[in-house]
C-alpha cells in the first residue's frame, strides 16, 4: 500500500445509481492526466467476489487489488470481507469461500478506507468493470464514503476492440488468460483473478500501439463503443494545436463540412472520435471528412467571431446555427402620408423608423401584431393619398383602424397617435406601447379569455425583445472605436479592438508587459470599418452580440473609446424584468407591472 497519508472523506447523505461503462469515469476526479503515456500510468487492477445479486451496498466477500506501473508491481491489497449475510451454496461451490472463512473477516465499512487510499491517483482497472465498480460505489454510498471517481479501464471492453473472433472465441477472463499465457490463472478468487487481469492488461496494451493508442485517455476512449468511422478517421485529430481557435472539417474537394470553435482545438476535435459523440449528423459528417484545418486565434472572442464569419460565408451543410444571416428581416415604418408597418430584408439609408433585426419573418409579424394592438396603425397595404379617398375596410367598422383611407383622421393627428409611438418605442422609450399591451392583457385575463391573453403576451414579448436587442446593439455600434482588455488565463491580457460593433483586431499582451504597446500594434494592423446605417452597420447582429457578451463580463476592462457607451435612460432596457416575467410566466403575473 502507499505510504502517503490520504484522508478518506465521509459524506452524510450518499446515493448510488448504477451506471454503464460509458459513465464510470465521467468527470473523473482521480487527478490522472488523460494525456499520460500508458507506460507511466499507475493502474490498480481490482477484482471482487460477491454473494451475487445487484449492488446494494453489501454482498462483497473478497477484494483483491494489485497496483502496477510500467510493468512493475508496486503493491497488493487482499482481504476477505464479512458480508453480514449467509453465503449461497452455489457461491461456495464456485469460489471455495465458506461461511466459516468469512466470520472473522472485517465488514466492508472497515475495509473501504484502506481500499480508497490504495486507489488514490491511479486508474482503476477491472474485467467487466461496471460490475466491480458498481459494488464498490454502492458500498461507499451506503457507508458514507465519497467515491473518488477514478478513471476506469475495462479489460473486457478493451479486448472486444483489440482481439478478433479468430484469435479468441470470447472475452472471458479465463479465455484471455489462456491466450496471453498469464503467470497466474483465474480461480474465482479475488487476488488470483486480479493478478491474471494484470497480465491480460499488459498483453492488451502491447496490442494498442498498432492502433495509435499511446495514452491512458486514448485507451479509455478506445475501449468504448465508438463507431468504425470514428475509429478509422481518428487520425484527423492528430497534429492540431492546443490553442484557442476555429477548426474546419473539409471534404475531399476541400469543401467545408462543419465549422466549430474551442479554447483548445486539439482536445475538442479529438472528442468527435470518442463514444461521447453520438449525434447522427456528426457521424455522417465524419464519414465525408478528409482533413481538419485549424485557424489559431488570439483568444476565445476572436475564435467565436471567426467561426460566425466562416459559417456565414460558406454555409457548411452540417452546421445548423448562424448559417444564413442574410435571412434576417426588419420591421419598418413606411415613408407615406399615412405610414404603415412593412417587413423588409434590408434598410435603405432614408429609413428612419425601424425595429430589428428579427431572426425570422414570423417574429417580425408577431411584433407588428403587438404594435397594431397597442396603437392605431393602419394594416392595409394601399398607398394612401392626402387628396383622394377610398372605401374603408372592416377594421375601421370594428374600431381597430382610424380609417385614414376615408380621411377620418388628418395626417398630423395620425402621426401623433399612431406613427410617433412606434418611432419612440424603437429609438427611446417603449412605455406607451408596453402600457397599452399590458392593459389589453389585463382586460382579457379579467374576462377569463386566457388564450387571447396568452397571444397578447406573446406579442408583448416580441416587441420588447426586439426593442431591447436593437437598443443594446445600437449603443455599441455607434462607437467608432473601442479597445477592451480581459485578464488572460496564463497571465497578460486578452485584447480586442472593436469598430462600429465589428471586431477589427485581437491580440494578447505578454505577462508582465503593459498592454498599451500591444494595443497600438493591433490598431496599426486592424481592419478598417466604415460607419453605416442602422444598428448593425458593419457586422451581423450575432457577431456584435458575441462582442457585447465579452465586453459585459465583470473581468473585462474598457481601455479606450472614441465615444460614450450609453443607452437611453428610459429605454427598453428598463423593461428587462418585465420581459423575463412575460417569457417565463403566465398572463396573470403581468397585471402587477402596470404603473
Automatic annotation (TrEMBL):
Signal peptide residues on this chain, from the entry's feature table: none
An example Gene Ontology CC term for this record: excinuclease repair complex
GO MF terms held by the record: DNA binding; DNA-directed DNA polymerase activity; exonuclease activity
The UniProt record lists the keyword Nuclease: yes
Keyword line: Exonuclease, Hydrolase, Nuclease
The keyword Hydrolase is annotated on this UniProt entry: yes
Residues of the GIY-YIG domain: 242-320
Gene Ontology biological process terms from the UniProt entry: DNA replication; nucleotide-excision repair
Full protein name: DNA polymerase-3 subunit epsilon
Native source organism of the sequence: Micromonospora sediminicola
